[in-house]
Amino acid sequence: MFSVQTLIDDFWPLILAARFTLLVSGLGIALGLVIGAIVCAMALSKSRAARIAAAAWVSYLRGVPMLVQLLVVFFLLPVIGIDVPAIVAAVGTTGIVASAYISEIWRGAILALPRGQTEAAIAIGIHPRDSWLRIILPQAVALSIPQLINELILLVKASSLVSVVGVMEITRASQAQAGVTFRPLEAYLAAAILYLAINLCLAALGRYLEHRMAV
After folding, report:
1. How far are the Cα atoms of 122, 126, 195 from residue 118, in angstroms, in the given order?
2. 211: helix, coil or strand?
3. Residue 33 C-beta-side C-alpha neighbours within 13 Å
4. What is the pLDDT of residue 214?
């Protein structure tokens, strides 16, 4: 029989575990933004080699499941002499995978802007670098906010995969609770409610940023 009290009791350990879910997702998206910007610049570069490298990066990361990439990174690092905690491997993998999607989000946003803006900026004497920093990029970031928030929400859900390498995030904590109470329904339902609450907050943040940065 379903127990509401067990459901309530399961929330506290899951809330504690949510710190690692948010840590993996937050640091992962931050790392993804940095790497994604570099890959995006390479994809839009005049250098054919840079464009090929960017396309290969994106194709590999989007073509291989995140779980497989996480296991490869987790077991590869010790082989090459790099011993890091599981949380570091999880954040690194999450950020690298996110970079492929973020680079495409930004590339699409930049290509969607009228090319005449850059040409007009150069015509009135604005340096190309300044036109990118002050005209193109602010608009591209504003246009990409919905997709970036969507990517962050996807990362929060995908962070459940890091449980396989021992990170005590929400999913792994719910499994532990189910093992202690022998009531898996309440434990996994509590996890579902917590994931939903986090992602609803992120969606609200996205709508706020869209309003503030409307182009």
Report:
1. 6, 9, 42
2. helix
3. 14
4. 66
* Amino acid symbol at 35: I
Q: How far is CA 57 from CA 14, 37, 167, in A?
A: 35, 13, 26
Q: Where are the alpha helices (DSSP H) in the chain?
A: 4-43, 48-63, 66-79, 86-112, 116-123, 128-131, 137-158, 170-181, 184-212
pLDDT digits (tens, 9 = 90+) for 19-46: 999 999 999 999 999 999 999 999 998 8
Which residue is listed with tokens 């082989």?
79
Q: What is the 3-state secondary structure (H, E, C) of 102-156?
A: HHHHHHHHHHHCCCHHHHHHHHCCCCHHHHHHHHHHHHHHHHHHHHHHHHHHHHH
Residue type, 167: V
Sole residue written with tokens 């504003």: 142
